[in-house]
Amino acid sequence: MLTVPKRRLLLSAGAAAGAVAAPAGAGFAIRSAIGANHAAPASGHGGPHGVSGMAGDNIVVGVVDHARNGFDPHAILTDWDVGTVVTDPDGTRVREWVVTAVDTEVEIAPEVMFPAWTFDGRIPGPTLRCTEGEKLRIIFQNGSAHPHTMHFHGIHSWRMDGVPYAGLAQPGERFVYEFEAKPFGCHLYHCHALPLKRHIHKGMYGAFIVDPDPARHPEARGAAESRLLGSARNAAWQEIMLCMNGFDTNFDEENEVYAVNTVAFAYQQRPIRVERQRRLRIYLINITEFDPINSFHLHGNFFDYYDHGTTLTPTLRTVDTIMQCQGQRGILEIDWSEHEPGIYMFHAHQSEFAELGWMSHFEVV
Amino acid sequence: MAPDAGPAVASAALPATRPAPWRTAGWLTLPLVVLAAILALLILGRPLERLTEGAPPVEQVTVERTRLDPGLITLSVRADGSQPVRIAQVQVDGAYRSFTIDPPGPVDRLGTARITIPYPWVDGEAHQIVLVTSTGVTFEHAIEVARATPRWDVPTLWLLATVGLLLGVAPVATGLLAYPGLAALSAAGLRFVLAVTVGLLGYLFLDTLGEGLEQAGGTLDRLRAQAAVWVTMLISAGALTMIGRRGGRAPEGAALAAFIALGIGLHNLGEGLAVGAAIAAGEAALATFLVIGFTIHNVSEGFGIAAPLVGRRPRPLTFVGLAALAGLPAVPGVWIGAQAVSPFWVAICLGIGAGAILQVILEVLALIARRDGPSALTAPSSLGGIGAGLAVMYLTALFV
Ligand SMILES: [Cu+2]
Questions:
Q1: Is A356 on the interface with B (CB under 8 A)?
Q2: Which of helix, strand or coil describes residue B383?
């Protein structure tokens, strides 16, 4: 028998989450397969839900209250946060975001509450998206009860590194990170306060996507344009962001729950809708703690892979499984045009992770 | 003090008559009233709020019973803690599984619930279950060797009853066959046999109490099951002593033999539980050893029951009754044990059994003292007999 005190219910330290997200609307028509009438009983113990007929009995029981969480994993797939573009007194054009650290409870599996530390009250934090060569400014306000940083994976000065000796914001304080968007690719940011492992697995991470500037890549202009958010070539693609993460709910340094975008089995209960005539690009990030690697395996199809997303030609061609170590990420490009419509699985090929929540479905239409 | 002053002082200090009954009742109720006031202050006034506010809630869950039916795992759980515990998700072998919980919703403090998990468990293999509560705390439960839980159907009950009869009735009856031999003994020889009985019973007492305390250790802390074992042991010893002596005389002869048989019967109930639990836990090979061991072990119990009957000319039917009283409880013991009952109730049962054994130890010692004088208790034949009894039981226990 075990006696375990529940962790403290963390009180939100006051500061409201800065709702600066202004998702760019055009061109990301990936909708959920099952509409609002999917809703199962909120207290739904008993009986499988969603497409669990395809999942057998390897499911979580009930459904997560996304409204209470304040974010929906289906919305997170495509809610690119491009911030706002401001012009400084000296005439410099700067892309600017306000990001706030917030302590909150997140329902990571039906009725399992995790005392999280977050950026903007969500896990993963806002998906910051910009274009290569832009000047960036991230105004980081710490509304949490603990000191935090935003450490960006990118090329920048040590002063802007978001580590304990540079860029640490105490509770109630703020820090402004400024650097240029480079190199282009699929990156991430995360808190780098100490103890590092704790600050990361509590939920402090998010995607940082730098689109290539086609003007800088004349040799591969078409490929660069297809990645540039808002371009005509980009509109022919469906793009989603998947962040592979895990949660150690009992703080024994092992994850009890694995997921993509936080909620266990979210895309198993409700598949991600994919249109055959548009190619699918996935910005895939691994921020799982405790387990050295995570992986992505696709059923019934193969894909091209761009490690770190920092090249315009694939670093791996025609694969159906890739692995990423902690903090590694990359871009997957998948063509469904020849496929029979239906449900196609994707999941970690660590069966353990898959059966503990990192199991998902595409609904190809 | 002047001789005549005494009564005057005394009468001044003490009321001449007893106080009125309502006044006595009033004084006796006063502590209850004060207690109620203190509780009201604690609950309504919340003076400890600053201490408990924000304190991490404590959660405890124990799995009291596991049932395995084809394709189905059923757990009976009991919860405790500072608030009701909600079992949010269930993992089996490291995978989240569908399940139902009855009654639905959180499990109250000390409340129970049944969790039903459809699962293709594999006969003879181990399975690991993790219960995840709404706070993310996990409680692990291992099924070491998966075997279908015996059903309550007639053939199974018969089979288990046979095990119980082999375990309980057969050896006790075998031991009783020694009666004619005991009856031929001299007074000193008989005293030795009675002392051996005390030794046998002493071993059974320690064994039963120890087993009860061990079972109690597997229950929720707040049930205070170990204290409950001690208390039930003392109460049952006292109650049986009172019943045995209700006629004003200590039990002797057939009556004493019956009390010994009762105590041994309750002990054999515990042995039946152990064998039944071994069968239910898939340790069938172990169950065979247990039956062999307990059978050898229990023959000695028959001697103990026969000893007080020496010189009493008991009827044959008396022997049958005594064998049944001492041996038959093993049968329901096996039945219940195979169904894996709550360890709390098993512990209470064993506490009662230990008390019953304690009572007969005292009565047999009293019998020796009455027959041969108190000094006989410390005579070499008595102490040697007690030692021999303990040694025999210990050595035969090695077969178990
Ligand atoms: Cu942090």
A1: yes
A2: helix
